[in-house]
Write a structure and sequence with these properties.
This protein is of the alpha/beta class. It folds into 2 domains: 143 residues, Beta Barrel (Lyase, Ornithine Decarboxylase, Chain A, domain 1), CATH 2.40.37.10; 185 residues, Alanine racemase (TIM Barrel, Alpha-Beta Barrel). It has 12 helices and 20 strands. The strands form 3 sheets. Strands 4, 14, 15, 16, 17, 18, 19 and 20 form an 8-stranded mixed sheet that branches.
Length: 414
């Protein structure tokens, strides 16, 4: 059994099956490039996350789907029916969530560099909770509310920066003073401004209901200690806010935990993390009534694949390329953007072959960095074969573009 097999991905007689159908036959029917998503795998992942918290707390546990991972309307409707909430990072995402049937009270809007127009669109959704990313936003928020929504009670939470950030690449570390490559972190309110932000929000007539943090994306097993420390800091901060008279409704610990992208990756222990959070909240005797997390990759990544067709094999200076009919930027940009972003790639009809070589899977864009995988040891495909890029359910189609005027692939859900 391959390390990546799950309810969605199975190997039978050397062929890749997506659910009950051969991947190559799905590609022949719908064409490639093609994204294929699995309902059953998404719901299985959601159930696993709920079980991680089950029995550990009497608090309401809110699973707020980070819809930037994949805003497919059918997926949103499925998750809404399953009882999730929404983490939205733009007015456009708020609008899409509403269109999928989510109630405003189940949407948290967390923006950065938020414009007055962004706030106007957010405040227009009565019942939405707006996450404050900067003390400096409050004057703008008050001005927008007083001009357009005089007298409306607007629920707010505060995104704080706990001073600790974790992520698989410096570009996705979203807390701390600087990312590992030295880039100043733009997100969240620093610790010394937290109380003043809550006080100013209350003074301006907003209703503070929560405290939020997000450390970054792509946690692995080795990140648990620092991630737990950041959670402990937020719980401590919530206790301090209670003493100042701010009785919060919820604490939102953000996302960051995801699936295994490679065989050697240590999977982040979500159940241990959940147990730690629940234990610390109980120890502090907080008066909150809900806790929240914001999964994106965790729910969607392994529930999706990208199917590509090999046009031909090319040998050059000792390198062997499988040249495919899609490019990274217009299908799955992660490998081109983040050097550490690895995706397993398998030939859908040759998984039993022992004829393996180091192959670079090359896209069809005018960019040297347009490769899905570099020198991957895999069964040698032939022209016309279909390759499956795994873990393509999150941060793939949603990040795609029409670079080189190439089309963005279509999606199907099975």
């Amino acid at each position: 059994m391959a390390w990546w097999e799950n309810r969605f991905l199975k190997v039978k007689d050397g062929k890749l099956y997506l659910g009950r159908r051969e991947a190559a036959k799905i590609a022949a029917e719908h064409g490639t490039p093609l994204f294929v998503y699995s309902r059953k795998q998404v719901l299985a992942n959601l159930d696993a996350l709920r079980r991680a918290f089950a029995g550990k707390t009497d608090l309401e546990t809110r699973i707020c789907y980070a819809m930037k991972a994949n805003p497919n309307r059918e997926i949103l409707r499925m998750l809404k029916a399953a009882g999730t909430w929404i983490d939205a990072v733009s007015p456009g995402e708020v609008h899409e969530a509403l269109g999928a049937g989510f109630a405003p009270r189940n949407i948290l809007f967390t923006g950065t560099s938020v414009s007055p127009e962004d706030f106007r669109q957010a405040f227009a959704v009565d019942g939405l909770t707006v996450n404050i990313d900067a003390y400096e936003q409050l004057e703008i928020m008050k001005s927008v509310r007083d001009r357009w929504f005089k007298g409306r009670t607007i629920r707010v939470s505060v995104r704080w920066n706990p001073g600790i950030g974790r992520g698989f690449n410096p570009k996705v570390v979203t807390a701390g003073e600087r990312s590992p490559d030295g880039t100043p972190i733009k997100f969240g309110v620093e610790e010394k401004k937290i109380l003043a932000t809550f006080e100013k929000a209350r003074e301006f007539g907003f209703k503070p209901v929560g405290l939020h943090q997000h450390l970054g994306s792509g946690w692995v097993k080795e990140d648990l200690a620092e991630v737990a420390e950041a959670a402990a800091r937020m719980i401590q901060k919530a206790a301090e806010l209670e003493k100042e008279g701010f009785i919060l409704e919820f604490l939102d610990f953000g996302g960051g935990f995801g699936p295994r992208y490679s065989k050697g990756q240590g999977l982040f222990p979500v159940a241990k993390y959940a147990a730690f959070i629940c234990r610390e909240i109980k120890k502090r005797r907080l008066k909150i009534r809900a806790l929240a997390v914001e999964p994106g990759k965790y729910l969607l990544a392994e529930a999706g694949v990208l199917l590509l067709t090999v046009g031909y094999l090319k040998e050059s200076y000792g390198n062997l390329f499988a040249c495919v009919n899609g490019g990274t930027f217009n299908t799955l940009p992660r490998p081109a953007i983040y050097p550490q972003a690895y995706h397993e790639i398998v030939p859908c009809s040759r998984l039993g072959s022992t004829n393996k070589r180091r192959i670079t899977v090359a896209g069809n864009l005018c960019e040297t960095g347009d490769v899905f995988g570099k020198e991957i040891l895999m069964p040698v495909p032939k022209a016309g074969d279909v390759l499956a890029v795994l873990n393509a359910g999150a941060y793939a189609r949603t990040m795609a573009s029409n670079y080189n005027l190439r089309p963005i692939p279509k999606e199907i859900i099975i």
